[in-house]
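Researcher: Batch entry, complex prediction.
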Amino acid sequence: MTDANATCDKTVLVIDDDEDFCASVRELLSGRGYAVETCGSARSALTWLDERPEAPKPCAIVVDLRMPDMDGYAFLATCEVEPRLRDIPVIVVSAYGDPTGIEADFISKPVNVSRLLRSIEAAC
Amino acid sequence: MTSIPLPTRTLELAAPEPRPHVLVVDADSDSRAVLSGMIWPLAHIAEAVSADAALNLAVGHDLAAILIDVDLPGTDAFALVTRLRRHPNLRNVPVLFLSVTAPDWMTERRGYALGALGYLTKPVDAQALRAKLEILITLHHRGAELRRREAMIARQHEEIREARAALEEAAAANRAKDLFLGVLGHDLRNPLSAILMSARLMLMADQLPPKERESILRIARNGERMAALIRDILDYARGQAPGGLPIAPRAANMADICRSMIDEVALLHANRAIQLETSGDLRGEWDRERVEQVISNLLTNALHHGNGNIRIDVVGTADHVGVSIHNGGKPIPPEQLPTLFEPFRRGAHGRSGLGLGLYIVHEILRAHGGRVEVTSSEEAGTTFTTCWPRHAPTRPTGAAP
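Model: Structure tokens for the complex:
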């Protein structure tokens, strides 16, 4: 699903089961020199990462909290222990407006688009 | 809570010292008359000539004592006592035996074995009888008082049990409400998020013909209003919980926060200029989402209720960062100023909304250990000033691990 834009060297991984949100982020970022990879669950994101051990790591990960299969909390816990993920900035995006217990950058839905853009620009 | 009705018997006794009855069981009418003459100043009298009559009368009366002639014709007085004792209400009523002759050792023992208090020989000495009855009547009243208190304690226990059950029920209802609000918030926000992001992306691309641009602006502005309402309702519900609104402070820069909020708002209100002035060190530790919410609520108010340009001043002092938002136009009526930050107060404009926006601004500042103030006049316009301690207090509960 990666954007077929060979000039992109910055990849943002978006993990959310809401396809419309993924599409919106893709539209926001693809015109600004980012490649966007989207996954519907944390598990499929980990699979995607496992399948390309040689590929450059994403420069930022945008992740929702509530998802089927493996949710954002589990993904955040994995990031803490997984060496390949530990250094990638994570931006949490959730419709539950309560960031309690989350260390990562937190943006509640509906997303402030300029804020999301700034957070991604700061990370990449 | 429903109160438990007291047993009728207890209610009767609750009246100030009602006269109890003394039952006299004696076949001889002269003897009964003499005894009645002695008893009447102390108690009501019920008279029975036979064991059956005695049983009938005894059950229906509040008895302080029973006097039984041991020489009842054709009846064993001891058998009568045994029958009386079988009745729950009569189990403890004091019994005095009357006899013409002093009882022999065996008879006396039989009487005591049945719980009789003693024997009075006829002719009965008035003073001895009254002295005994006075003690029995006092004991009877105390017993009644005790039963009344027991009933009261039982009722209080019942009330405590009910109150506890009601509390548990309320706690369960509260948990259900939180869950409901959480799910409601989530399920409303996700589609709204998609609508708003799409509208914003179209506006940001800036390739729309003017008419279409206006339509998209309307979609975005009204979507924002809905989003603000959902957020206010959820925050109001959360703020009602003990401890108020939870916050998660972390390093942030107040100028960055204000800039990104201005970007968001300016996109939807292109005809209004928002000027930002900053000075001093503007870094600190706050719940960024919450600060954004405050700026957003105050900016939206300034856009709706004021006119002309809006100025935001962000000033860093030694231990605080102040953000003031100023707009011109019609001032807030002075009589509304004292209650402006209370929930469900809708401004004079009577615009849509629940009147929760400023209340939540106040609650967010409170959670950060800061404060919000307002000045408003015809000449100077309206200024909301928020004062944020550079390091928001972190509560032990709800803090990040």
